[in-house]
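thought: user wants a sequence for this fold. calling inverse folding tool.
action: design(structure=
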């Protein structure tokens, strides 16, 4: 659920500001790292 809201936020951010390619790459990298952190936290809580 959190990941969906995060991706939705980034999509809205991209459409609102119409980012350039370099900024878009940064946003994608940031979203990937955030998703990785959330998945890692979820994995830790399972064990």
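)
observation: tool returned 47 residues.
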């Amino acid at each position: 659920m959190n990941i969906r809201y995060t991706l939705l936020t980034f999509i809205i951010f991209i459409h609102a500001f119409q980012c350039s390619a370099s900024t878009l790459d940064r946003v994608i990298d940031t979203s990937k790292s955030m998703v990785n952190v959330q998945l890692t936290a979820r994995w830790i809580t399972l064990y």
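thought: summarizing for user.
answer: Here is the designed sequence. The chain has one domain: 2-46.
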